[in-house]
Specification:
Layout: E1 2-9, H1 13-24, E2 42-47, E3 55-60, H2 64-67, E4 80-86, E5 102-104, E6 111-116, H3 134-142, H4 152-160, E7 170-174, E8 178-183, E9 198-201, E10 205-209, E11 223-224, E12 229-234, E13 252-255
Parallel strand pairs: 3-13
Antiparallel strand pairs: 1-4, 1-10, 2-3, 2-4, 5-6, 6-7, 7-8, 8-12, 9-10, 9-11
């Protein structure tokens, strides 16, 4: 179970990262979920003109509260930033390969992916006998190979086909052209409020987060994000990836 936040427009990266840190350690928790603390690593994705495909990223297996000051994120100047703070559902799924953002290299269009929830049944739709890492399997299922964009109706159809037994498919999916916020929770989840998402819209920026963060704006300025939706966040300026469709060799900040 994890916490997500994404910002687009005119904002301070340090403020968005501080909001993610507040969610990760439980300072803003107001929900029915199983945990307030998310200590099992964190990651970020942002727009960066000189990156090979226009997107920078960072991963760290340490808790966000202990390591965010050592990352490049607080000093960024960017018009898009997404942050993921992780609480691993299964103890065995710790370490760099399980730390988000997950990546899909090669193929027609590169994607990066962050997930909040546990979907231990989605592997069946990939023809697998058992689940190895549900977030990776969910990524492979919900973003079809070769996809350049996510169609809302098609994505919701795919979500509603997932066999019961999981919690949520809340996610942020990013490619060189757009980002997408998926807000979907299984009807039989035991923690529906935990998997709610909230939207803060101003004349300068859009923020979507797993929790209301008062340090960004008073609670009355936030509104619940409509469930069973896919929100597209197109880039506000034209930025062409230096090496189109190629993640190989892209600079990644990783702390193992």
């Amino acid at each position: 179970m994890c916490r997500l936040i994404v910002a687009s427009g005119d904002f301070r990266a340090a403020d968005i990262l501080a909001a993610a840190e507040a969610m990760s350690c439980g300072r803003t928790a107001d929900h029915d979920g199983p945990t307030d603390v998310h200590p099992n690593g964190w990651g970020a994705v942002w727009r960066q003109a000189d990156a090979p495909y226009g997107l920078g990223r960072h991963r760290d297996v340490r808790p966000l509260t202990e390591s965010f000051r050592e990352s490049p994120v607080p000093d960024l100047t960017t018009d898009f930033l997404a942050v993921h703070a992780r609480h691993a559902t299964l103890a065995k799924n710790h370490g760099p390969r399980f730390t988000h953002p997950l990546e899909r290299t090669g193929g027609a269009v590169p994607w990066l992916f962050m997930h909040n929830g546990f979907l231990p049944t989605v592997h069946r739709l990939l023809g697998m006998e058992s689940s190895e890492f549900d977030s990776r399997e969910y990524f492979d299922y919900i973003v079809p190979a070769g996809a350049r964009r996510l169609d809302e109706a098609e994505t919701l159809d795919r979500l509603n086909t997932i066999p019961r037994g999981g919690s949520s498919g809340n996610a942020i999916a990013v490619n060189p052209y757009s980002a997408y916020v998926i807000h979907w929770t299984s009807p039989d989840t035991v923690s529906p409020r935990y998997f709610g998402m909230f939207r803060l819209q101003t004349d300068r920026s859009l923020v979507i987060a797993s929790e209301v963060v008062p340090d960004l704006a008073p609670a009355e300025h936030w509104e619940p994000l409509k469930p069973d939706t896919v929100t597209e966040i197109p880039w506000t300026t034209g930025l062409t990836p230096r090496n189109r469709y190629d993640l190989e060799g892209a600079p990644t900040h990783v702390h193992d």
